[in-house]
Give the backbone structure.
Amino acid sequence: MPISSGITVKDECITTFRDKINSVGPSRNVKKMKWMILKVTDDLKEIEIESVHDPAKDDSDKSIYEDFRTRLSEKPGPKADTILPRYGIYKVDYEIPGDIVRKTDKIVGFSWVPASTQRELKVVYSTSYEALKSALGNVQVSIQADEPSEVEFKYVLKECDRTAVNGF
């Protein structure tokens, strides 16, 4: 699917999102993927999946998020002291307090573009992000991060819902 920056979103990104992360209905109780990391290809023509959560691993929610956060925000660049930009999609499960605590979830889209990113890549990632979200559909919360604190789970919960508690 072509987007405004001229970069195409590979069909596998959309299919994986819709079938494995954002699925509802009878298969809702089946263990689903919690996240995927996407990147712009080296030739700057497509957005592709770089890695996905393996739902077969029986990890805690905290370790699943830490794996995602590390893969999103710590990919070393070609030069010393550089980190590569990435997109991430994460299905956050959390609780909303009240007379009855309500469990809910939101799909969070991340645009991780560290300050050390080359100017050309900053432009590519920022111009492609909104169109990527549109192509995927149902990204309910958007986080554009350029520093590690903006991908910490507490910050993500705050963005999901100001009244969220007990995210793990």
